[in-house]
Amino acid sequence: MKQRNKKISRRAFIRKGGLAGAGLTLAAQLPVLAGSSSAGKKALPVRALYERGAATVYLKSKNELQYIGMPVGGINAGGMYLSGDGRLWLWDVFNLNQEGINPVDIPWKTSVQGELRKVRSRDGGSYIAPPKAKELRPLDQGFALKLEYEGKEQTRQLREEDWDEVRFEATYPVATITYSSKDIPVQAVLQAYSPFIPLDTDRSGLPVSVFTITIKNAGKHPVKATLAGWLENKAALHTAAVNRLGRKNTTFKEEQITGVYSTLEKTAFGNQQADKSFDYGTLCLAALDRDAVAIADIEAIDNARLFTSTTKVDQAVKAAQQTLTGSVITTVTAAANESATVSYIISWHTPNLMIGDGKVLPEKDRGQYYDNQFKNAKEVASYVAANFKELSGTTLLWRDTWYDATLPYWFLDRTFVNIGNLASTTSHRFKSGRYWAWEGVGACHGNCTHVWHYAQGTGRIFPAMERDNRERVDLGLSLQENGGIWFRGEYEKRPAIDGQAGRVLGCYREHQMSADDGFLKRNWDKIKRATQFIINQDRNKDGMEDTPLENTLDAIWDGEIAWLVGLCIAAVKAGQAMAEEMNDTAFAAVCKDYVQKGSRHMSDQLFNGEYFIHRPDPVKGRKGLGSYNTCHIDQVLGQSWAFQVGLGRVIDQQQTLSALKALWKYNFIKDMGIYAETHTDGRPYALYGESGLVMNTNPKNEPKPFGDGAAWQIGYFNECMTGFEHQVASHMMAEGMTDEALTITKAIHDRYHAFKRNPFNEIECSDHYGRALASYGTFIAACGFEYHGPKGYIRFAPKLNRENFKAPFTAAEGWGSYAQQLKGNKLDAALTVKYGKLSLRQVSVERSTAKEIGKVSVILGDSPVAVTVQTRGAFVDIRFSEKLKIQPGTPLKISIV
């Protein structure tokens, strides 16, 4: 057949370009995809999604380094990025609180032929035009290496330009960067992180980045390696020049470290109140080497001159307009086929945190929490040096525990990486100890309940943060006499119904992630009042909330709305569970009645035979905004939340599965760029060649699917927002729809491949969006994990690789690994604590079938444990005669035949 030569259209070219170079793209992986372009076709499983694979690596040779920005500062300590080649950038540690990491408007066309818009940071600017490290590096910092071997000398900086290959291994919270070139026998390996210890908010919240640099000598002769680290003094980055300050560097030596301490100096003609400025503070660079040489001022940073200075300057002062850079130089020798290691610390201390003009928040909530622990950056560095072995060792232990699993590496990456949002300026901790967060960097005030309740990660990794937020904010300053919870703390004095329900569910999770029942006892009366508020929003007393209140789609909807109804049912069931634990039988009965009525009526009245819908208000009809007969992403959110906290079934199982399958059929879009050509409203969170789960679709092809009036919020319905997608993926995983759950999660992972944009920054309303921490819920569901600390109960029922499964877990007082081997109905399992302790009265595991048990044996360390056993179908509940305390070195082993 004769082929005609055809020009490729610009649209086709853009589509093709969206697929190029990004590694594995989802569209290429799936032989047949469900979604708008293949509705009705069965999606074929992609076995590659289940494969263990290897750690995610990004390479210079594939042009994958330019957008990487891994958070390497402590949680609630500012936003510090590590670039793909190992240098620090962004430096959002000066309390600026700007909107977005790069607060500029980006020109963007909605489609190839569409209108030109300006996209703000809060609308996805960093998605369509991701900032590059070289563009946001306001001060100079780096490392250089001089190698002397076989009579030769080589000097290279640890940067992309100086090496043939740079390899970035992205195992958050620790990055490993390897530098190599064909012409030298040495590799340099840099590990960078900030101390990160799950359950320990203080030691995970240090304003510091740690660099451990290893020289690997693959040659036959010893190599002398001289390493120079430098840091420009840019204390008071934004105001020093305006306030006519000087900057001062001073060298110092202590028992463990040698460094340069960077401070500010007031001048005679300067602002004498400059220490009140938001960015006033100190910086510090130090090497963990008592014999290192510190220089207060180096005039030039280049490969020829960096190591040639013979003048050791111990103190230097310059005007803020001048460049002042300190350096610390250390020397090691690596024998043939051996390695040598040096560690550096970069710390900061900018205590004057204030949100806005400071008038809304009380005086006690001004300033950084870390100012209670350290008075300057030098004290931070000294603390880290003095405790380096424990801080570093425990951080690496967590990294190794997290990745020592049978789950796919890419899955472990994507479900955990968003915990890094806590180490951005999305999340703060005030000097009073109070935790406070934007929705995304600098956008939308005040621990927004209807956003942050999706965030499952914080409550599992740093449960103390969430307990404090419940007590101090939601059940504290935000709780009203009628039980309503202000949904933005001091910033929005009204409740949002979904946020209200999510916070009651959160209270149950925070109770479960406690070692005892103290949290529940202290707060029960308030939790009860908040739960009663939800019940009171059911005007016709049918168990289905129908009072128009704010929701997360920034509008007030009328009618009975499946996703809000189901979420309220789940919240009231959580209230029932807590009431039963508190022996409040009367309130438990009230809750039980609401849950039973609501579940029944939701099933009967809000299910259209395929999915759950929004029934309009009988008087107002469809005049206002709503989802109505459309297929809405959150339609069974209540059941998703219920699985996260072990509440069991709150929405009919078969209807729930049908609803999830409808989301897969109608809402999973193979190519969002093509989809956006006909759905032009919405923000650009997925582009040509990128797949995703869209917020709302119109399977009935109604002319006005979202109501009869115009509303700007309709644009949301055409978007892919990762927090919602993660929520659905976690639910699908819990229901056994593993192919679909993995596909949705992988679609997000591919959208955030480093070739395209920063893999560590999932964007919604601004960067590092809080809702994205819903990703951890998919990990919870994959493990079939349930936990109740006060009851001493833990459960594992893996959804992936059940025959040979291993994964990490966190509990109230410790963390570790769970492993099982399942052959037929024989199950061998082990719980190993790596940090802290785990107190247990009962373990529940799942076999292949409900076949009768032959024998159960349990051993703690070397000692047999007496147990009683009950079965619930395929589940085996193993109860101990007394509470066991499992500690590192004494694993709990279970055998069932």
From TrEMBL:
Cleaved signal peptide residues: 1-27
PROSITE patterns noted in UniProt: TAT (PS51318)
Gene Ontology molecular function, alphabetical: hydrolase activity, hydrolyzing O-glycosyl compounds
Ranges where the Glycosyl-hydrolase family 116 catalytic region domain occurs: 498-774
InterPro entries per the UniProt record, alphabetical: 6-hairpin_glycosidase_sf, 6hp_glycosidase-like_sf, GH116_catalytic, GH116_N, Non-lysos_glucosylceramidase, TAT_signal
Keywords of the record: Signal
Xref: Gene3D superfamilies: 1.50.10.10
Domain of life: Bacteria
Domain Glycosyl-hydrolase family 116 N-terminal, first and last residues per copy: 69-390
Gene Ontology annotations of biological process type: carbohydrate metabolic process
Protein name as annotated: Glucosylceramidase
Highest classification ranks of the organism: Bacteria, Pseudomonadati, Bacteroidota, Chitinophagia, Chitinophagales
